[in-house]
Amino acid sequence: MNLHDHAVNELSRLDDGSEEQAEVNKDILKIVDDFSSQGHSGFSAQYTLNMLNRLLNFYPLTAIKDKEVEWETLADGTKQSKRYSALFKDKDGSIFDVNKISVVYEGHENSAWVGPRYYVKLPYRPELNEHYTITVPKEFWPDDAPRPTLEEYASFTDDEELKKHILNKI
Questions:
Q1: Does residue 98 sit within a domain?
Q2: What are phi and psi of 105, to 5 degrees?
């Protein structure tokens, strides 16, 4: 079975009769056929797919460095990476990735919130699918409860490396 036939077979399992799914399937088959026509070997196929995956997810291909041209200054003086929009630099020079950590409040519906900052050092190349979830105990989620401190957020995980990033001790 070639890649086109494999894709048709798999996409047919998603076919729900809707026009939207039919359009998505058609678009995907165009990409599959174009990729197939490029004549990749096993190595070049994986290399190309890895780069394409990063690009389609708005991830940089190379490490972000501390070059002024790679940063945009926001109204409050914070800087945002032009190459990876989840990366910010505070006025004090601290750099953090807002996509790395989310918070789930124990026992609360729809409870995924942005959590503490994940501090990093430059050069920095974020990895796809590398994400942490911290579960916060129930006593912190009522509206009148104080937000956890950085030390408390760090105490909600057993991952020592993650604790360092939360506390900016990297």
A1: yes
A2: -90, 120
Query: Domain residues for 20?
Result: 3-56
- Phi-psi category of residue 119: left, alpha or beta, with phi > 0 → left and psi -120 to 50 → alpha: beta
Q: What is the number of domains present in the chain?
A: 2
- CA dist 19 and 85 (Å) reads 33
41-90 pLDDT per residue, tens: 999 999 999 999 999 999 999 999 999 999 999 999 999 999 999 999 99
Reported pTM: 0.85
Are residues 130 and 159 located together in one domain of the fold? Answer: yes
Task: Give a yes or no: residue 95 inside a domain.
Answer: yes
Q: What is the pLDDT of residue 32?
A: 97
